[in-house]
Each structure stands twice: as C-alpha cells, then as structure tokens.
Amino acid sequence: MTQPDPNDLPPPVADFLPTTFLERGIAVPFTTPILAGTRARPGERVPMELIVPSPSGGRGVYILPWQDISALCRPTLHDARLTATIAGVQGVTPRTIRKAARETAALGFAGRAAAAAAAAAEAAERTASLTVNFELLLALVRRVEPPGECAIPPEQEQPAELERRARRATARIAPEFGRTPEAIATTLEQLADVYSCIGIGRTANTCSVPQLLARLIRLRADLGAYLLSNVGDSARDATLIASALDLTITCARVAITDSRHMSTDVTLLIRKWILQPEAVAQSVARADWLLDGWDRIAALWDTAQTPSDQQLVLSEMCSLVPSVPREVGSWVGHHLNIEADSKRHRRKVVLMQDWRTGRSVVDVADLIGRNESLIEQTV
Amino acid sequence: MNQQGQDPAQTLSRPQVRAIQHDLLSARDQQILRVVDMVDKMPLRGEADHFIAPLRQRLAILRPARRLNFTRLLFQPLDSVIVAPSAWRRDTLNVPRSALPPLAALVRSHMRDEAAALDHALEDLTTDHEAEIVEIGPRLWAAAAALLAGVAAPEDWTVASGLSQGDFTGIVGIVAPGLLQAGRITQIVATKPGELSNQKCAIEEVFQDTAADGSTAFAAVVTLLAARMPQSDFVFTVADDVAVRRSEPELRLAVDRAIDASIDTLAGALAHPSRLDEAANELRRVLIAIENLEAQCFNRVSRKTRLAHLRQTVDGNNRRQFTAALESHLLQPAQSIMDADDTQIGVLEATARDLRRFEAIARRIGSADHYDRHLKSAVAALKPRPNDPAQTKVDRARLIEILRGPDAAAAAMVG
C-alpha cells in the first residue's frame, strides 16, 4: 500500500488561535443553538465568513462563506434575518454587528421583549452620543477660552449662554484647522459618536463598554466565590473563564484609559481626527473589540439561579470564551501570557444532553427561547 | 388536629371523610400543600392520613418539601416500592403503606434514647435537606436493618397494619436488605450520570453483598436501585453479571423478578399532570424508564406485551392531553392575537413551547402521525393573514416557528 503524500493530507485539526481581532471575528447573537459561539469576519475570497465552533465540541472551527449558513443548520427566523442584515454590513466591527443585531431584534423575530430591549438600547446609545458631544463641547470651551474670560465654569453655565460660548469656541479654533465652525461642530459630533461606547467625563461609567466592564468585574468576583466552594469539572471551567477574564479586564482597562487620555486635549483630538479618522476610531474601539462576546457569557451566568444551574451553565460559558489574539500585546504595550488563555479541556457529556448546554436535546425550542432572552440582556 | 391533640379524622364519619377527600381532589396546588403541611405537623397522624391518600399522585408531581420525621426518614430509601394497602399484593417486591407505622414503632422502641435524639435532630428539617439526610440517614437505616433482620412481628402488627403475621416476614425480607444498602445506594445515586461507569464497582459491591442474603433480598435491592437511577438497564445488566459470575440461577431469576417489579412500579405510578410543562417532565421520566425496561425484554413475549400495553396507555393519554391543550390553551386564545399585549403574547409563546416539548417526547412513545396532523392544522390556523399588522404577522410566525420549526414559519410568512 502506497503512503499518501503528506502534502495531499488536510492539515491536522488544531485550536483556533487567531493573530488579530479581525481574524478572530465578531460574536453574532444567533439564537439557533448549533450556532452558539459563531463569529463573523471579512473573508479572503468572499465578502463575509462565518466561524462556527465544531458542532461536535472538539477542537477547531468551521469557516464557511456567510451565505452557506443554511448548509450547516436550519437557522431560526431571527437568524435568517440577521444573516441577511449582516451580509449588507460595510466594515465589520463589534459596533456594526451590534447595530445589525439591534435592527433585527427590533423587528420582533426574537420576541417582543428583545424588540423592546433593542429599541431601548438604540435610544440609550443616541443619548450617550449626545451626552459625550456635550462633554466634548465643555472640554473645548475650557481649552479655548482664555483664563478669566468667563467667571462661570462651562459645566455650571445656563444652556443658552453655554451654547453661545460653545459657538464662540468652535469659531475661534476653526481657522487653526482651516475649517469652518460648522465643520468643527460636525467633527465633534463624529468624535462623540466614536466615544459614545466608552464615554468620557460624566459618562465614563454609564456608556455600554464601562457598563459591560463593570458587569465582567462582578462576574469575576462571582467566579472567585464559586471556586471557594466547588471542585471538579465545573471548577476547572470556572478557573479557565476567570483567567481569561483577568486578561480581558486588564487589557480593556488599559484600552479605555488610553482612549480617554487621547481626549484630554480636545484640540489635539480634533487634529488627529481630521488627519487620521480611521486610526482614532480603531484606537477608541479597542475596548469594544476586547470585550466582544463577553456580554453573552455574563448574561448566561445571570440566568443561573441555583448552584446546579451554575454548574450547568459554566461549561456553556467556557465554550464561548473568546481567545485573545496576539495583537493585544501591541495594544496594551507589555507582555501578556496569552497561552494560558488558550487552554481548553475535555469534559464528559451525557446521553441525550446537548454538549454545549448540558440540557436535554429535545428542549431545542426552550434553548432558542433562552437564547432570545440573552439577546434581551445583551442587545 | 384540634387543640386537644385529637385526630380530627377520628371525630368524623366515613361520609364526612369522603366528602373532604372529594373537595381536596379539586383543590388548588397551594391549598393541597397547606393541608399536607398541616397533617405533617400532627404528632399523631392516625386517620388523618386518609385525607392525604387520594392526593399522593398529585404530591408525586408537586414534590413539596415534606417535614422530616423518624418514620419518613426511615423509609425514604424505600419510597419507590411503597404502595397503597389496596394496591399491595403478596409475593411482590412492594411494601404496603399500612406496614410503615408499626415497623417504625418497632424500630423506635429498640432505639429508645437514640430515637429521641433523632427526633430532635430532625426538627426543622424537610425532605429538601438532602445533605442532612445523607448525613443522618445511613446511621438510622443501618441500625434499623440490623434490628429488623432478626426480630419477630410485634403483637399489635395485625391490628396496626391490617396484615397477617405471615406478611410481616415477607415485608421485612424486602425492607431490611433495602435499608441495609440504603446508604451505599444513596451515594451511588448522588453520582453524576456522566460518571456512572466509575460507579460500576460500587454497584457490583452492593449486589455481591446482597446476594449472600438470598434471592428476595437481591431482587429487592436491584429494584430499589433501578428505580432511583435513570439508567435502570445498566443496573439490571450489572445485577445479571453478578448473578452469572456467582453461578446462582436463583439470582438470575431474582433479576427477572426485579425487572417485572419495575414494570409494575412504573405502571402503578403513572401520573398525568394537567399542566403541560409538568406533564412533559413526567413523560420524559416514563419514556426513559420504558426504553430501559424494553432493553431488558430479550425474547420474553409477556414482558414485551406488558410494556407495549403500557406504551399504548401512555400514548392514549398523551394524545388526548395534547389535542385538548393545543385547542384550548393555544388556538382559541390565538384567535384574538391582534389585540394581544406583550404579556399575552408571552403566555402564548410559553404555551407553544410547552406543547412542543411535550410533543417531542410524546411522539417517541407513539402516534407521531397524530402530532404531525394536529400541528399541521395548527400551522394553518395560525398562518399570518394579509390584513394583519406587521407585528401580528411576526407574532404568528413565531408561534408557528416554535411549534413546527423555522421552515414552516418562513413558508407561512411567504404564502
């Protein structure tokens, strides 16, 4: 018998360890159980690719053209709509995918509660953008007005007077950038939109990224408490999630601090934006990329009401933990032990139970319902 | 129980007791739980047990936390083989409920101070306190097993239990080995299902030890363990292996007896909860039990016939329950879906999920075509109408998706 040419053999199955965040893809909130943990990314030969964890629970992932999702499973109505919406997305980022997810959820295909949550989240993001814009205007007034020109600090000013001072400030700096005051105002609005996820000034704790970070810090504390009184498979799952969380929280804090630091001199920020808007947007979005996918993991933990629920849900959470790409080293500027994050372990599965969730395989409709409630919590 | 500590049932006539029983049968869950709690608090339950007797099937579904007392803890490991006196037959592996009070009194009389200490330890505990049961139970079970194995029937046995003196020996022949192995069985049952193979040695040890006590003891312990484990066929297989290795034909017959007793237990304890979610859970349990027992049929026609009959009985009930619930809980309320608010839509979707869960299990019992036919009709009835508002179309599509899957829902949206 002739030996096969090693070049003809498919590559051995290995863990999916992406180098960049874009290669890792963005978590997509599908409700079809088999699509749990699926990510989207721009493809090499096709506009968009799906990265689907191996349905067997083994190592490796399936990478498919976006439109081939129905070859893998029968997606729910919600997922079919979401797939179509994402196919039309320009520039794949956590934010654009989130927007597509909200648009889809708002149609009601994940239930009325998810639709209401999507509408509320969209409204909250608009409010955050307006508030951040206000904070940038305040910063601009403080930066531009000569000392002693106004006795009242801008944050304590009456709205009408503040508006006058803001117009004056934009008019003063516009020539410096060779722009009209209106163009500077538009730039501030664009920056506000970019910063609306992480927040600045008084919005530093209320925007979506710091809120999620706070939620993850609570989750980390919960896991610490869980590990004090549990051993076995679930404790190993909790340990893995906790170590990945430690890394993610550390990196996200650095990314948020760096982005906010960039906004302390608002005129410098405007200049950067005018010269390299993409670079600024990418830099501010780093925390969003780092935390991508963790909202669902935290929401899963919140569904567990009893110790046995927690035990069950930990293995599912563990299967969703995103690996941290090496690119993060250049983001946070120091060495990180990423290898520790990538260690997954085997576990036993029981007859008639879904390997991801530990639930009975006949409860698919229930699982879809549970996934819809996760959208309600994370959209 | 009135203030003087009298048993209230003793002061009522038989028709009055029957009238109360009848009222309780139509009582709501919460009312039943209050009555049970009240009876459990009585130091002397006596005839008050008659109030609870007709409720046992509903209690098996409700599974309320019951107050722990000496008797309840003592017989907790034998729960699956305890039957109503009217359902008990000699030469089966069951224990009539009427035998429990005199047996408990017998054990208590020999334990004296230890029994009083146990009463104190059980104060404020319920059947939900699993860790405490695992800690306290084995000592009581082992002591009771040792005592019952060598004791004669008490003088008041017949009066107290309504059973003959001869029945005492037969019943103790089941109770004593069951209690002797109760601690180890509890440990085995507590093992995660995924680690069952690791427990094979522990199960074998239980069976090896019991085999020395004779075939009835062996059959009783096999039955008790099989009843408490989802994988009963695994238990029977291990028991048979032990019997073969010991080259004792009577032990193989005992395994057969245990399998037949398990079929009896399953048939006798069939419950039909009216709530669909509870019914689905119960149905899942029954399905697993039937499939496990069917794996033990081999070429035994009578056993196959009994299980087939059991399937038919369960199937008939399932079909009736599903059809009625589909119509009354989903299709009728969905007729006014256009006016439904978020809460009402949530209820309809939860009902659809319950129906789907129930149907997914029920079709494995039988009559898949029945469910297909009714679900197809339901899809036709729920199909979005051209003049529906957009939200209603989505609501309808979601109900169809839950019941029949995304393809049916997408087709309904298009057509």
Molecular structure report:
The complex is a heterodimer of chains A (379) and B (415). Chain A has 379 residues and is mostly helical. Chain A has one domain. Helices cover 59% and strands 4% of the residues of chain A. Chain A has a 4-stranded antiparallel sheet. Chain A is globular. Chain B has a two-stranded parallel ribbon. The longest helix of chain B is centred in the last third of the chain and has 34 residues. Chain B has 21 helices and 2 strands. At the A-B interface, α5 and α17 of A face α18, α20 and α21 of B.
The gist of it:
The complex is a heterodimer of chains A (379) and B (415). By secondary structure, chain A is mainly alpha-helical. Chain A is built from 17 helices and four strands.
List the helices and strands and how they pair.
The complex is a heterodimer of chains A (379) and B (415).
Chain A: H1 21-24, E1 26-27, E2 39-42, E3 48-53, E4 61-65, H2 69-72, H3 77-87, H4 94-106, H5 112-144, H6 159-177, H7 181-195, H8 208-228, H9 233-262, H10 266-275, H11 277-284, H12 286-291, H13 294-303, H14 307-320, H15 328-332, H16 338-341, H17 364-378
Antiparallel strand pairs in A: 1-2, 2-3, 3-4
Helix pairs in contact in A: 3-4, 4-5, 5-6, 5-7, 5-17, 6-7, 8-9, 8-13, 9-14, 10-11, 13-14, 13-17
Chain B: H1 14-25, H2 29-41, H3 49-52, H4 56-62, H5 70-75, E1 82-83, E2 95-96, H6 100-111, H7 113-122, H8 130-149, H9 157-161, H10 165-180, H11 182-190, H12 200-211, H13 215-228, H14 232-245, H15 249-268, H16 276-294, H17 301-334, H18 342-365, H19 368-382, H20 390-404, H21 406-414
- Tell me the β content of chain B: under 5%
**Using only CA atoms, what is the Rg of chain B?**
25 Å
| Quaternary organisation | heterodimer
Radius of gyration of chain A: 23 Å
The tally of structural domains of chain A comes to: 1
User: What is the CA–CA distance across the termini of chain A?
Assistant: 57 Å
Order of helices and strands of chain A: HEEEEHHHHHHHHHHHHHHHH
